[in-house]
């Protein structure tokens, strides 16, 4: 029959070439990983549930657009500590926008919020 040639012993040169090739592949993969990850669509977390309620006869709605009382926007600001404050009472902060809206209703009494003014001086 035919003789099967024996595998050549692994030389130092072949081992170094294999290790170098593996290192080049690993380095290329590590360099390209952020680029490939950035091309993937980002997964977003589900936002907290939106609130809507009637409080002391006033309709309060909290959504991604902001806080509304009887359909009129309440200017809300987020503080660095995660709490919220508004122009109605800017000396006290509240843990959630809903708590802020309830406090604004308490402060307003029977008065209505003014319609939002243009921030750029233009006519709306």
Give structural notes:
It is rod-shaped and about 105 Å long. It has 124 residues and is α+β, with helices and mostly antiparallel strands. It contains two helices and six strands; from the N terminus they run αββββββα. A hairpin with a 2-residue loop joins β2 (58-63) and β3.
Descriptive tags:
two-stranded antiparallel ribbon; 32% helix; four-stranded antiparallel sheet; alpha+beta; 2 helices; 124 residues
List the helices and strands and how they pair.
Layout (H helix, E strand, L loop, with lengths): L11 H28 L11 E5 L2 E6 L2 E4 L2 E3 L1 E3 L5 E3 L10 H12 L16
Antiparallel strand pairs: 1-2, 2-3, 3-4, 5-6
H-E order: HEEEEEEH
Low-confidence stretches: none
Sheet with the most strands?
4 strands, antiparallel
What overall form do the CA principal axes indicate?
A: rod-shaped
Structural class: alpha+beta
What's the total number of strands? 6
Distance between the termini: 96 Å
Give a short summary of the structure.
With 124 residues, the protein is α+β, with helices and mostly antiparallel strands.
